[in-house]
């Protein structure tokens, strides 16, 4: 085995204000299958006592014939899916508007989200940041829209001190020879 000098390659650092362009669409790469356990835990964590979300007998008697996933879990997953593409370098959400739940989500459904940039502007009070507004929609595995919303957030500009990479320097370098 030859000795090779390792080259450090930065991982994905997310988008900064300058990277956003109005009308750009980001298809977020990670789908998420919602389990019955996810739904039960989220109803417990959020103290949602509507039995349509966790009682099979109540769900069976509903118009859906089974329990539905709590809508705020669907929203949380959708926002989470978008972070890798739109808010990795954000430091504050400013608004969440026009939230819609178009179709029910059930345990076993796989959710996918995509976002379109609606607008962007410089911040008047924070010169190292800008404000971006996106619309996100979430689809199930059949392509049906289950959730959509508009979100506005502050995002760092490139080179902003508070957006600096905080990865620590190792005491010993990582080498090809180390096993």
TrEMBL record:
It comes from the Bacteria. It holds the Pfam family MC_hydratase. Gene3D superfamilies: Hotdog Thioesterase. This is Dehydratase. InterPro entries: HotDog_dom_sf (IPR029069), MC_hydratase (IPR048274), MCH/BMMD (IPR052342). One of its GO terms (molecular function) is lyase activity.
């Amino acid at each position: 085995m030859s000795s090779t000098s390792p080259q450090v390659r930065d991982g994905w650092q997310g988008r900064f204000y300058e990277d956003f362009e109005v009308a750009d669409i980001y298809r977020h790469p990670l789908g998420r299958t919602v389990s019955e356990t996810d739904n039960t835990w989220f109803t417990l964590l959020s103290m949602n006592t509507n039995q349509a979300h966790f009682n099979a007998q109540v769900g069976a008697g509903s118009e859906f014939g089974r329990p539905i996933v709590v809508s705020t879990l669907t929203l949380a997953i959708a926002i989470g899916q978008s972070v890798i593409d739109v808010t990795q370098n954000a430091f504050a959400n400013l608004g969440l508007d026009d939230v819609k739940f178009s179709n029910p989500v059930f345990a076993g459904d796989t959710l996918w989200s995509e976002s379109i940039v609606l607008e962007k502007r410089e911040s008047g009070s924070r010169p190292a940041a800008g404000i971006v507004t996106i619309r996100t929609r979430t689809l199930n595995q059949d392509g049906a829209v289950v959730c959509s919303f508009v979100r506005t957030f502050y995002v760092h500009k490139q080179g902003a001190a508070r957006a600096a990479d905080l990865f620590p320097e190792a005491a010993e370098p990582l080498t090809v020879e180390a096993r």
